[in-house]
Structures are given as structure tokens and as C-alpha cells.
Amino acid sequence: MFINNPPATFQAGFGAYNPTYDKDGGLMSPGLTPQYIEMIEWFRELYADGLLSKEYAVMKESQAEELFKTNRAASYGRPIWWDHEWEQAMKKSGQPDAKILNLSLTGPNGDAAVGLETGVAGGFYISKKVPEEKVKQLLKYFDMTASQEMTDFSYYGIEGVHYTEQDGQKVLTEQGVKEVNTTSKGAGVLAYAKWGKVISASGDKAYNDAKIKEVENFDEIGKIDFYRVITSEAWRETWPKYSDEYSSMLTRTIVGQTSVEQFRAYVDQLNNQPDIKQAYQEMAKAYDQFNQPTITE
Rounded distance, CA 236 to CA 91, Å? Predict the structure, then answer.
């Protein structure tokens, strides 16, 4: 199950995250490549066969999550750290042996795991109207939240209240499950945690060790959406002009209201727009710079 944009795993499996260039050498957006269209055609067939929710186009994320947690959906793409809590919810909903599996896929372009994360998400903005002294205070606060101590607090809360120590690992209590969530993790920048999206705060050590083993090869086969790690002024200014219409066309194609041929023609039209072609040129340069080796003394 997915909401609007197909999950990163499928995009990777169909090769959308393989750098693709137009005839002028511009680096194309993953969502405007031939392999992406191939994936949309495949999803269209799934929808026609009843394997996608008929309401997926208007479904909210919370609704999709509820379907999955109550055993009414077979798959759903979210961070692995939810697995333990959702398995407990599934068991309460009449599936006593519920178990969530995290799988890699083999697509037309080989094996692929869920798209790798960049290590960052979102951003904090400080208005230029804020006095310099307050800016320094805010930056000092972010430095503090990036410590391991504050990161652990964001993930687990207060010892004896929100978590207990079991086998050398912090495990959330019932109160912790209710009160420690993604909101607490959004209060700062946090420290780096390789398995931060895998380890369940409510799962014990054995559970989490098994989860890590289940996905440890994702580093090797995982792909990343390179348009998330590079950018250009031209792309930032150009794509918002087309993104809403594009999303609408994509959805209509999957549900059968627009043919694949019409969607392909529409994407070709976008790819030949002068402003998009110029943005592709800039993105190609940005990608080349990104891949330049870092020289250290």
C-alpha cells in the first residue's frame, strides 16, 4: 500500500534511482525517466487487479497505517522501528502470530532495498530578523540536542518512567510507548545513529538484533534518490510549476482514468520544456561535483 507516490523500494527496483541522462547530457529527475513510467504501468495493473486499495488516491497516511495495523493490508512502507509496536497492534486485532517482514525486491533492474536515507530530514530556518545573540543561542541549543545524551532522551525518555534497562538496552514501558514518539525526536537535530530507523524502542535486544540482521545487507543493495542529495536553483524554481499537475496525471494513470500512452506523452512534453532541460543541465553539474573525491591533507 502506498499514498500517491510509489514506495522508494519499487522505484529502486525499476531503476528510477539509476542516474539517467537526456540526449543533451542533462540529469533527469527519477520521476520523469522511462523506467519510472514502466513502474507506473505495473502499478496500473496492480490497481486493475484489486491489489491496491481503490481509495488509495484520496487516502491519508493515518488511514493507510490503520488498515495495516488492523490486518486489512498486506504491505506498507514506513520506518522499521514501528514493526514491534505494530505487530502488537495486529495481534490485538485478531492475528495472534502477526509478524512484519522487511524484504528486498528483485525488479527489472536487479535487487533493491528501500531507498537509503540521506542521514538528514527536514530543516530548521532562522529568520534574518532574529538578533545575532539569539541566533547564537539557538545554534548552541542545536549543538546540545546533537549530543548522544539528548538523542537517547529523545528516543527513550526518562529511566524508570518511560524505559527500563534490559540486557544492556533501553526498552520502553507502556507509558513510554504512549508518550515517546516522533514528536520528541523533532525537538532538535540529534546525533547520528546508523540503526536509528531500525531499532524499536519497545522491542528487546533479541528482537532488535534479529531486525538488524534482517536488513543489514540494505547498505549494499540499497539505492538513494540522488535528487535528494543534489539541487540547483533552476530545478527549485522550475519543478513547483509542474509538480501538482504531474501528481494528478500520475494518479489518474494508475487508476485507469488516463492511458499509459498519454502519461508517457505528458512526461515527454515535460522533459522537452526549455526550463526543465536547463534544470537538468544544472543538476548534471551538481551531480558531477557531488561525486568528486574529497581531498584532505
Answer: 45
